[in-house]
Amino acid sequence: MTIVRDRNNASSACRFPLCNMIWLLPLCLMPAAFVVGAERDQAPQKNRAAALYAGRIMLKVNIHIDPEDWLALRTSHRIAEPDRIAEDSYEYYKADVEIDGVTIPSVGVRKKGFFGSVVSTRPSIKIRFDQWDKGQEFYGLDQLTLNNNVQDASQLHQYMAYWLFQRAGTLTPRCNFALVTVNGESLGIYSNVESIRGPFLDRVF
Predict the structure, then answer these.
(1) CB of 128 within 8 A of CB of 95?
(2) Beta strands at 175-182 and 58-65: parallel, antiparallel or unpaired
(3) Mean pLDDT by 10 residues, the chain (205 residues)
(4) What pTM value is reported for the model?
(5) What are the CB-based long-range contacts (under 8 Å, 24+) for 71-76?
(6) What is the C-alpha separation between 179 and 122, in angstroms, rounded?
(7) How far is CA 182 from CA 82, 105, 119, 134, 163, in A?
(8) Are 92 and 113 in contact (CB under 8 A)?
(9) What are the E-state strand segments in 66-174?
(10) Residue 69, pLDDT score
(11) For residue 68, which of 93, 98, 105 has the smallest C-alpha distance?
């Protein structure tokens, strides 16, 4: 039996290791970048919110908001028209929030999400601590992001993805879980994801 080798395939096989080396270069640099973030993480003033994202705890978030504002927040939606990017029509409403027994007054609360995760029963939520009281913060954070995971019945995809990125050595937002209630009504478990904003960038760079 005569084996005939395709010259094109042989050429591609020769080029394959070089392609691998090119792709491996950024992967080799990732751990070095992570070390920079890890060193900043160790500085207490840059990592005050560590307890809010500890992997083995579930944050308790109680939101107290005017019932009419809560209805307006839940039922708000983006405006989408042909050939135009959907407009962000979500607005902030004033509320008080209690996080693990600590009350933060006069925060801004709004709905979040694009299309797939947008629901009116248990919406994803952003909490801005300094929306009405400029300079107000909570353990160094100006915002809390709570995702409803309505497209993930396991509630684990987002948490596991961020955990995997961290294990790979990338500069990744922290993530754990939160039990959210609004005006005494439980909305269930949400993902508590670190917002990619100034505090996050200051922590990792």
Answers:
(1) no
(2) parallel
(3) 44 43 42 42 69 89 98 83 63 96 96 78 94 92 92 86 88 92 96 82 74
(4) 0.73
(5) 73/109, 73/110, 73/111, 73/123, 74/111, 74/120, 74/121, 74/123, 75/120, 76/111
(6) 12
(7) 35, 15, 15, 24, 28
(8) no
(9) 79-81, 84-87, 93-99, 102-112, 124-128, 143-147
(10) 97
(11) 93
Q: Amino acid letter at 188?
A: G
- What the block records as the tokens of 25 is 């270069």
In angstroms, the CA 120 to CA 36 distance is: 41
Residue type, 68: E
- Buried-state track 61-88, b at ≥16 Cβ within 10 A, e below 16: bbbbbeeeebeebeebeeeeeeeeeeee
Dihedral over Cα of 39, 42, 43, 45: its sign: positive
The sign one gets for the Cα dihedral 49, 153, 98, 89 is: positive
Task: Please give the C-alpha separations between residue 145 and each of 6, 12, 35, 37, 148, in angstroms, as whole numbers.
Answer: 54, 46, 26, 21, 10
CB 31 within 8 A of CB 149: no
DSSP 129-144: TTSSSTT--BTTBSEE
Q: Residue 145's closest CA among 88, 188, 192, 83?
A: 192
Question: Where would I find the H helices in 42-156?
Answer: 67-75
Tokens representing residue 74 in the block: 């839940």
Contact between 148 and 177 under an 8 Å Cβ cutoff? The reply is no
